[in-house]
Amino acid sequence: MGEVFNLEHVYKNYKNDGKEFSALEDVSLSIKEGEVFGIIGMSGAGKSTLVRTLNRLEEVSGGSVSFFGQDLAGLKPGELRLIRRQMAMIFQNFNLLSQRTVLSNVMQPLRIAGTPRPERKAKALEMLEIVGLEDKKNEYPARLSGGQRQRVAIARALASDPKVLLCDEATSALDPKMTGEILDLLGEINRSRKLTIVIITHEMSVVERICDRVAIIDKGKLAEIGEVEEIFRNPRSEPARKLVFPGNPFDPSDRDSRLIRLVFDGLAANRPFIAELVEKTGRKVNILSANTKSVGGIGYGQMVVELPPQKEEQELIIQFFKDGGLSVQEVKRS
Amino acid sequence: MSEYIIETIKTGIIETLQMTFFASVLAYAAGLPIGILLYATAKGRILSNRGVNLVTGFIVNVARSLPFLILLVLLIPFTRLVTGSSIGTKASIVPLTVGAIPIVARMVESSLSEVSPGIIEAAASMGASPLYMIVHFILPEATPSLLLGAAINISTVLGYSAMAGVIGGGGLGAIALQYGYYRYQKEVLWTTVTILVIMVMVIQEGGNLIAKKTRK
Ligand SMILES: Nc1ncnc2c1ncn2[C@@H]1O[C@H](COP(=O)(O)OP(=O)(O)O)[C@@H](O)[C@H]1O
Ligand SMILES: [Mg+2]
Q1: Interface contact B127-A108, CB threshold 8 A
Q2: Distance CA B93, CA A178 (A)
């Protein structure tokens, strides 16, 4: 499949009171046609800056961004506007025109593209039907709930038949139920219209729910990129680990003891490893946290355990888990 | 009060309304585009242009800082050139307009600045041109605020129109000055002042109401 976006060594520097600040540093990645691509990172990591380079709302300071092979930097203003009509964007704050009706909002991109009025209206109504809001067409955005406003924004985004949909924290202002509904709608649109979707978020649950691949951005740098399942199974970078396995709910009994993380997928999840450990080796571990999640239909579990202080004991226990096919990682203490 | 004075006051009301109306329309015809220019060319905005912004801003500031009475006198030759006379209702419209333009421009600029940057970003991401953004995104979003500003500006013009009476303009201001100051007829003075106050209140409250109605 083709590449929608290709970023090569993208840098972005901001000047803050004369001081250079590097918001993006050497980011290279590509986004494939038809996929749901996640970009995740902590607040201030540079996610919004990164997504804004995709439609050149932000000019890069170095490197290049291309859209279907065309370098965006070389475009004249008029050409850029034409390219932007092939991309659509939705935002955390919806950014709907408050003084215009829902229908008028959805018609905007078509109006910009010069579509004749009757066609515009028919198309806008069709889009409102997709998001399930035809009955709200004459309402003003202020009278809608957050979830409904985001649906209007999605209808507006789809109206011009874009090739890609960019979502900057599109669900961050919504409650969990509405977030789920909006994500399901986006997933549905991705499948039915084969629309490439780029999703910016700071929440791992969003990535888990609908992304095929994910890029982890940390302090302006690309920390890790790959299939979502793969990153959940085996996060290699520290930022990825922090996102996949957030803090431990229990404190270890000993400040300096050794902690390890056990990760198992759906296959291994049925075996009672801890019980087997006690039974076969007579050694015990202290469970600090455990949770499971479902990624792409496969159940994943992870557990953080505290090992006994003796070095030999530790090695024996680790070997036991490794032999059982679990992935074992050291947990750094902060 | 005599019949004659009552007739005079009636004429004065009509003249005041005429001056206020035409001066306001003309001031918006010029002030709205200037306000848009000030807004759009400011730093970080859609047509950011430091030079244009500085020059326009400077002219507007100078014009706005002149006391209206001084402007009235300064503009006498220009008024005569435009209307053929420097006294009367028609002549007053010229300095009123000139005085109101910078006020309108700044008010428009401030209303437009209130529009959320997100709206402009959304428009840009849709591939809208700067002109399209102004006409179809920024102005509609700013409409309630522009209307509130208009109510204030029109009230200001009405107040200024009374001042124009000092140098031979028509309207209620001239009547108040003539009868109330030179002839010391207190009841005429108070009548005209009351009418002016009521007119300002009607404009202000009417404007507020309309602005409230339009805000969705
Ligand atoms: N226009 C700007 N000028 C200066 N600094 C900026 C600007 N936009 C973003 N930044 C800085 O760049 C960093 C990344 O911002 P952003 O991309 O918005 O982060 P995120 O979306 O991941 O929370 C932040 O530290 C932010 O303060
Ligand atoms: Mg952001």
Answers
A1: no
A2: 57
Of B121, B127, B141, nearest to A98 by CB-CB distance is B141
Q: How far is the CA of A48 from the centre of ligand 2 (A)?
A: 4
Query: What's the full length of chain B, in residues?
Result: 216
Minimal C-alpha gap between B106 and chain A (Å): 23
Of B77, B95, B100, B87, the closest CA to residue B171 belongs to: B87
Instruction: Provide the residue type at B59 as one letter.
Output: I
Question: Which pTM value belongs to this model?
Answer: 0.87
CA distance A84 to A90: 13
Burial of residue B43 (number of CB atoms within 10 Å: 0-12, 13-18, 19+): exposed
Q: Hey, what amino acid is at A98?
A: S
A151: tokens are 């649906």
Taking the C-alpha atoms of residue A49 and residue A217, their distance in angstroms, rounded to an integer, is 11
In one letter, which amino acid is B28? Y
The predicted-structure confidence for A190-232, as pLDDT tens digits, reads as follows: 999 999 999 999 999 999 999 999 999 999 999 999 999 889 8
Paired tokens of A232:
């959940």
Residue B195 pLDDT exceeds 80: yes
CA–CA dist A159, A105 (Å, integer): 10
- Residue A183 CA to residue A187 CA, distance in Å, equals 6
> Residue B124's Cα: distance from chain center in Å?
32
Query: Where are the strands (E) in A120-186, listed by range?
Result: 164-168
Which residues, 6+ apart, have CB-to-CB distance to A306 below 8 Å? A252, A253, A254, A257, A258, A259, A285, A286, A287, A288
ipTM of the complex: 0.89
Domains of chain A plus CATH, in order, are 3-242 (3.40.50.300), 245-331 (3.30.70.260)
Binding pocket residue ranges, ligand 1, CB within 6 Å? A 14, 16, 21, 23, 41, 43-49
Count Cβ atoms below 10 Å from residue A284 Cβ, excluding itself.
14
Q: What is the pLDDT of residues A263-274, one digit of tens each?
A: 877 665 567 888
Report the amino acid identity of residue B16: T
d(CA A24, CA A215) in angstroms, rounded, equals 13
Structural domains in chain B plus CATH codes: 3-215 (1.10.3720.10)
Distance CA A214, CA A229 (A): 10
Distance (Å, whole) CA A257 – CA A262: 16
Please tell me if residue A160 touches chain B, with a CB cutoff of 8 Å.
Answer: yes
Q: Which residues contact A5 (CB under 8 A, 6 or more apart)?
A: A30, A31, A54, A65, A66, A67, A164, A198
